[in-house]
UniProtKB/TrEMBL annotation:
Family listed: Belongs to the JMJD6 family.
Name listed for the protein in its UniProt record: 2-oxoglutarate and iron-dependent oxygenase JMJD4
A Pfam family matched in the record: JmjC
SUPFAM superfamilies documented for this protein: Clavaminate synthase-like
Cellular component terms (Gene Ontology): cytoplasm; nucleus
Reaction equation(s) it catalyzes: L-lysyl-[protein] + 2-oxoglutarate + O2 = 4-hydroxy-L-lysyl-[protein] + succinate + CO2
Keyword Cytoplasm annotated: no
Highest taxon of the lineage: Eukaryota
Matching Gene3D superfamilies: Cupin
Keywords: Iron, Metal-binding, Oxidoreductase, Signal
GO biological process terms, semicolon-separated: positive regulation of translational termination
PROSITE patterns: JMJC
Cofactor(s) this protein cannot do without: Fe(2+)
Length: 384
């Protein structure tokens, strides 16, 4: 990669620590010398139960996880540091903790305005089922294997303290890293990738974009960029996965690819199975977290929130609250129209999709045709 290309990528990826200096977590979770403040964290979250991965063990293409009391994890972490970062339990990494959902009253952080058009969390907040806001905490040496983010979403990750090293591959480069069976590597730094009999296209791949992220800085990961991440120091970070009008079409393409993969896997049962198409949807949802009907509801919730703002405006009291409608208002009415246009484009494609049309759509309210008509009318009125 040429130097000017590398500098261009750095400019795109890293946001200054100025964006996080006022966060409660940056003030309170960190000691004077930039280390995790274990005493403060135990005081606030000691009784929580958290997901912890073992970085020393490979389970399929990830690390096995267990649920631990937070106070037990902090005890382990302290002992791990005292023992020169070694333990018979392995290197344990607290990952994917839904702290914001569990402790909504805590002053932890504020989503930067550049990332505030966040359809994923807007939808899952609306149905009160899940969210894609996470806290990571881990000792020096903890790491995350090679992967791309859920639904091929964007992600942003802010270091509260500590430093990370990122290895990033632009979308499409992962194809050169697959083995002869089509599987992605667990660790892109493993010497085995040099074996052409196992990884026949590895030599065609570009070197990764390498970033060292300092305390306070935010890294932005584009859709479909596979990456591998290392904690260079004892590190705490906050991460969001997010989709908006700029990459929702990529999410839709991803879902179509996932369904096609499922259909190929169980194609031999297509004829004897009466509900084969439904079973494909169920398997896809178990693997990815969403099926075509929920994707329709996802688009509907996003669209209806924007129509509400366009049709009814937003009063001062609502604007002061941390709600999706307030975020839409902050971004502006033209942004709401932009979101509706992108929703119309993807919803039109979904409605015409043969696999979608084979499902029982009577439970969808309003029907896809009626929702499309409503969206197009709202756009026309807003542009008058």
């Amino acid at each position: 990669m040429l130097l000017h290309d590398f500098l261009f990528y750095l400019w795109r990826f890293i946001f200054s620590s100025k964006f996080t200096e006022d966060w409660g977590s940056r003030r309170s979770w960190v000691t004077w010398d930039g280390k995790p403040d274990f005493d403060y964290l135990l005081q606030k979250f000691g009784e929580a139960v958290v997901p912890v991965a073992n970085c020393d063990v490979k389970e399929y293409n990830s690390n096995p996880k267990e649920q631990l009391p937070f106070k037990e994890y902090i005890k382990y972490w302290k002992e791990y540091i005292k023992n020169d970062y070694r333990s018979s339990r392995g290197c344990l990494y607290l990952k994917d903790w839904h702290l914001s959902r569990a402790f909504p009253e805590q002053d932890v952080y504020t989503t930067p305005v550049y990332f505030s058009s966040d359809w994923l969390n807007e939808y899952w907040d609306a149905i009160a089922v899940d969210d894609y806001r996470f806290v990571y905490m881990g000792p020096k040496g903890s790491w995350t294997p090679f992967h791309a983010d859920v639904f091929r979403s964007y992600s942003w990750s802010a270091n509260i303290c500590g430093r990370k090293k990122w290895l990033l591959y632009p979308a499409g480069q992962e194809e050169y890293l697959k083995d002869r069976h089509g599987n992605l590597p667990f660790d892109v730094t493993a010497p085995s990738l040099q074996d052409r009999s196992v990884y026949p296209r590895y030599n065609q791949s570009q070197p990764p974009v390498e970033i060292v992220q300092e305390a306070g800085e935010i890294v932005f990961i584009p859709s479909g960029w596979h990456h591998q991440v290392y904690n260079l120091e004892d590190t705490i970070s906050i991460n969001h996965n997010w989709v908006n009008g700029c990459n929702v079409a990529i999410m839709w393409c991803f879902l179509q690819d996932e369904l096609a993969a499922v259909q190929r896997e169980i194609n031999e049962w297509k004829d004897p199975m009466d509900d084969w198409h439904l079973q494909c949807q169920l398997i896809m949802k178990s693997c990815t977290g969403i099926d075509y009907k929920e994707f329709y509801n996802f688009l509907k919730v996003i669209a209806e929130n924007r129509i509400s703002v366009l049709e009814n405006g937003l009063d001062d009291e609502a604007s002061a609250k941390n709600t999706p409608k307030a975020a839409i208002s902050t971004l502006g009415m033209l942004h709401a129209v932009f979101d509706l246009k992108r929703t119309v484009k993807v919803l039109t494609s979904l409605s015409a999709n043969e696999d979608f049309k084979k499902l029982d759509l009577t439970s969808l309210s309003p029907p896809p045709e009626a929702l499309l008509h409503h969206l197009k009318a709202a756009i026309d009125i807003a542009l008058l």
